[in-house]
Specification:
83% helix; mainly alpha; 341 residues
């Protein structure tokens, strides 16, 4: 059976649009523009999420997306301002805060020394003075790298703002009357739609999973352990780490579990083992939810995501690690659309 000329042309357009999309996605990683992409996709979906609620509040349909975008931009600006103030306050705490932190770290290490293997002890500082010397040496050795952190933070905020602007403009202008785009533009718009679906399936599902995991972890750290007269330090910090690390599928669990286990070890091996057992139970539940929520949406198992994350991290570092689940979900959408899987 022969294909018509129009079918051949459509196939070529699809192929060209796929190549252009893949090149664009990899270039974004290479140039460090992943922040802008994620911010744009997030604000685009949030505008569509908030708009119906505004309709229920009496906002007219032509104004819903504009009002939603204005509210979201105001909230994001407020959060950024609070974050900057918090960082400034932390740095202005001065030498006393740093010394206190070093003392706390030294106490934790000193408590754990009797429970660690001998080969590990050789790498640990003896006291607070040794820790201060080690930190000072590290700061001198990495002065040039630390000098660029401010520039990097400024670039991150700049890309974040640009991504928000682009995503917001796309969200509020997509309903406007525009000329019908050409065939290639339509094909690229289909690729963008699949990417948007993949982003939605991964990010919003993972937020739900991370929030549930954080709730159970907070219940254990802040309620269960105190009932047994066990009070871990840095509970609020560990809860925050659990949530934000949990936004990264699969690997986030390992990060948060490691932090909680090490802090628990500072009290006793029994507390550390109990924490590990509880976390294993929680994450068994989370894997079930992961399979039901994320796996159900993109039909991906945990080992599939791990392979994608490992490959992308090897190629692009941390940005690749963050982008891997979203890119993999997009790839799945493309394959499903062609009934290849």
């Amino acid at each position: 059976m022969y294909r018509t000329t129009d079918e051949i042309a459509d196939t070529r357009l699809e192929l060209v649009s796929l190549v252009l999309t893949l090149v664009a996605l990899l270039t974004l990683l290479k140039l460090g523009l992943l922040t802008a992409l994620l911010a744009g996709l997030l604000i685009y979906h949030l505008v569509h999420l908030v708009s119906p609620a505004l309709g229920n509040m009496g906002v007219t349909k032509p104004m819903r997306k504009m009002v939603a975008l204005s509210i979201l931009v105001a909230l994001i600006t407020l959060l950024l301002a609070l974050g900057i103030v918090k960082l400034t306050t932390t740095f202005n705490a001065g030498l006393d805060g740093i010394v206190e932190l070093l003392k706390r770290m030294a106490e934790v290490i000193e408590t754990a020394k009797g429970r660690l293997p001998a080969w590990v002890l050789g790498y640990l500082p003896e006291n607070t003075a040794d820790m201060q010397t080690a930190v000072s040496g590290w700061l001198r050795g990495h002065a040039s790298e630390l000098g660029t952190m401010g520039v990097g933070a400024g670039r991150f905020v700049f890309y974040l703002v640009i991504g928000i602007v682009i995503g917001g403009l796309i969200a509020i202008q997509e309903s406007a009357n525009r000329p019908i785009p050409g065939p290639l533009a339509q094909a690229l718009m289909r690729r963008a739609a699949f990417l948007s679906i993949g982003f939605h399936n991964i990010v919003f599902s993972q937020i739900r999973i991370s929030a549930l995991n954080t709730m159970f972890t907070a219940l254990y750290l802040a309620v269960v352990l105190p009932l047994f007269d066990v009070h871990l330090p840095l509970v609020k910090t560990m809860i925050a780490v659990t949530f934000f690390a949990g936004l990264l599928p699969v690997l986030g669990n390992l990060i948060s579990n490691t932090v909680i286990f090490i802090v628990s070890l500072s009290l006793s091996p029994a507390v550390a083992i109990a924490a590990l057992a509880y976390l294993i139970i929680i994450h068994k539940l989370e894997y079930f939810l992961n399979a039901r929520i994320i796996g159900g949406r993109i039909n991906a198992r945990a080992w599939e995501l791990l392979i994608a994350m490992m490959a992308m991290e090897a190629a692009f570092g941390v940005p690749g690690l963050v982008a891997a689940p979203i890119y993999y979900a997009y790839l799945k959408e493309e394959l499903y659309a062609r009934k290849l899987i």
